[in-house]
Design goal:
The protein is an alpha+beta fold. It is built from 7 helices and 20 strands. It is globular and about 60 Å long.
Length: 331
């Protein structure tokens, strides 16, 4: 199944079921008013949602319209828990060099994760307000999962089986603030503005062979101001999503609707480019002694779109412009 959330004037939006090819969408609010409600009552509501999805994919256009990403909020506009990991070791090691921090202890055996704000996720097409260009505005392309309820101490195998949805996201960062917050040891706060999401959340089975070993085995195409920036593949995650969820739930339970991000998609070797500016800057420092690439400016545009080998885009695309805070934003 594929889901999106349309603006309807309510904080949690209107739940839509989207066709497999992302061409059509049908209102699912008679089954569940919003996606968080559906996740909280998954066992009860999933069969009806599946029937609606099957009918839409079989060509039933009753009540269906053209799918419009511009009408989309984040699939989950808000939820109770958002955690983000750093599961691509190549990116983590490069960031240690970027911020001149000590190597993270046990980085390859214990996942690194922070708990972020989950009350204000951004849709895929809205302008993104930032307070100041001098703060080092950066994008970070990631994959993520949305889980059902998990008990404290859950195993990685059981956690993976509880994954309800897979998402694609941009975990915005303000690099000028990140170094101090990392050194303080309490995790990110000001350095992490609201996270953006691609318009469509998908059940793992929709990815076919691209969902394997608890990882999203897809290329994440990133362009900046219409210039290709990178195409790293999600299969190089050191930890699976099941392992990451088990880590998050070691000392607490996780509620249905918890979102967990992979951290910036990154591949060793550098041939595929990067999914964030900071990583490219570190590579430039190592190769040439100084960074050549500046961070984003107001008016800059970033586009992120995961693609299958056949060219399909299962999540749709994030396509956003950075604006000064206070500038009028379109709905």
């Amino acid at each position: 199944m594929k889901f999106a959330t349309y603006h309807n004037g309510q904080p949690d939006g209107q739940l839509m079921v989207v066709s497999r090819d992302l061409s059509r969408a049908v209102d699912a609010s008679s089954i569940a008013p919003d996606l968080l409600h559906a996740l909280q009552h998954w066992e009860e509501l999933a069969p009806a949602l599946q029937r609606l999805s099957d009918a839409l994919n079989d060509g039933d256009r009753s009540g269906a319209g053209v799918f419009d990403p511009a009408r989309c909020m984040a699939p989950l506009p808000r939820t109770f828990q958002w955690c983000d990991a750093s599961a691509f070791l190549n990116h983590g090691h490069l960031m240690e060099r970027a911020f001149n921090t000590e190597p993270i202890p046990d980085f390859d055996t214990v996942p690194v994760m922070y708990q972020g704000a989950s009350d204000d996720f951004l849709g895929p097409c809205v302008p993104v307000p930032m307070p100041d260009e001098a703060l080092g505005i950066d994008f970070e392309g990631e994959f993520g999962v949305v889980t059902g309820a998990l008990p404290m101490g859950v195993t990685s195998d059981l956690a993976e089986r509880a994954i309800r949805l897979v998402v694609q996201l941009n975990d915005w960062s303000l690099r000028a603030l990140a170094g101090r917050e990392m050194r303080a040891g309490f995790g990110f706060l000001q350095a992490k503005p609201s996270t953006s999401f691609a318009p469509v959340a998908v059940t793992p089975d929709e990815l076919g062979d691209a969902w394997r070993d608890g990882r999203v085995q897809l290329d994440l195409e990133v362009s900046w101001n219409d210039v290709h920036f990178g195409r790293p593949n999600g299969g190089e995650m050191h930890y699976s999503f099941g392992e990451l969820l088990a880590h998050a739930a070691r000392t607490r339970k996780l509620g249905a609707g918890t979102i967990l991000g992979s951290g910036t998609v990154s591949n060793a070797g550098g041939e595929r480019g990067s999914a964030c500016i900071a990583e490219r800057r570190v590579i430039e420092i190592l190769a040439q002694g100084a960074p050549l690439t500046a961070f984003m400016r107001f008016g800059d545009r970033v586009r992120m779109c995961a693609r299958t080998a056949g060219g399909e885009a299962p999540f749709g695309a994030i396509d956003q412009r950075v604006v000064a805070a206070g500038e009028t934003q379109r709905a």
